[in-house]
Amino acid sequence: MSAIMMTGELKPLKIVIGIKKNRSHNTLLLKGKGLVDSLKRGDMKKYKTIVADPPWEPSISKILGPKWTHINKASPHKHYNVMKVEEICDLQIPSAPQAHLWIWALNQHIDWAYQVVRSWGFEPWQMLTWCKPGLGTGRFQCNTEQVILCRKGNRQGNPFGMTGGTWFSWPRGNHSTKPNAFYDLVERVSPPPYLELFGRRKRLGWDCWGNEVESDIELDSLQ
Predict the structure, then answer these.
(1) Helices then strands (H, E): number in the chain?
(2) pTM attached to this predicted model
(3) pLDDT tens-place string over residues 79-118
(4) Residue 49, in any domain of the structure
(5) Is there a domain that residue 187 lies in?
(6) Cis omega before residue 193 (within 30°)?
(7) Do the Cβ atoms of 68 and 75 come closer than 8 Å?
(8) What's the CA gap between 105 and 20, in Å, rounded?
(9) DSSP secondary structure, 56-80, as one string
(10) For the chain, does the N or the C end have fewer beta carbons within 10 angstroms?
(11) DSSP 3-state assignment of 29?
């Protein structure tokens, strides 16, 4: 546990995280002064498979500013609070010594996902593509999303199941919601127990963490 200097001596500092019950997406709300957010470690349950759909902040929003985020209907700011890459990297993920990670990435910033993957102790193994029906918005009318399948630990005793290809035609849902077929794929390829980070709905047999659901794991912030 980290400490802060008060009246000449070191004292431990612990700040509890609150889970916000509204439409804001999966960011942490500190009930205290802002520190680096983290998932509590120690005796926490360790997961063999983790799915993460981080609330990335697109770089274009930094370039064009608040006006773009206000007028662009595809802006994530209209749906949830976003997080910086560094904040996502700082999350201490409760993964088992041998584990799989599925992390959704922005098409224009696949490199951000690789950065997060490695900061969490995983290595990327394969990129899978969700092909959406119809055309999207913007200059490129983007109708694909990428999820990176990663592994932590030795491959012996930690294999991937067969994916059945690397692209999948799945229907669209609400903004940022991933199709049920994706979770079916995860369960075919990767072993339990399962944890979804930044989750928006509960799934039978899975634990979930996010501020739009009743989270199954405790959250603290320690610096």
Answers:
(1) 5, 13
(2) 0.74
(3) 457 889 999 999 989 999 999 999 999 999 999 999 999 9
(4) yes
(5) yes
(6) yes
(7) yes
(8) 24
(9) B--HHHHHH-HHHHHH-TT-GGGTS
(10) N
(11) strand
For residue 133, cis peptide bond before it (omega within 30 degrees of 0): no
Mapped onto helix, strand or coil, the DSSP state of residue 112 is helix
Q: What single letter denotes the amino acid at residue 144? A: T
Of 170, 213, 206, 207, the C-alpha closest to 187 is 206
The answer as to whether 80 is a domain residue is yes
Q: Are residues 142 and 136 in contact, defined by beta-carbon separation less than 8 angstroms?
A: yes
Q: Distance between CA atoms of 134 and 131, rounded to whole angstroms? A: 9
Pull the structure tokens for residue 168.
């999948």
Q: What is the reported pLDDT for 139? A: 87
Domains held by the chain: number: 1
Q: What is the CATH number of the domain that holds 173?
A: 3.40.50.150
Low-confidence ranges of the chain (pLDDT < 50): 1-42, 63, 68-69, 71-72, 75-79, 219-223
Q: Residue 34 and residue 203: Cα distance in Å, rounded?
A: 31
| Domain, as residue range, for 107 | 43-214
In a domain, 24, yes or no: no
Secondary structure of residue 12 in the 3-state scheme: strand
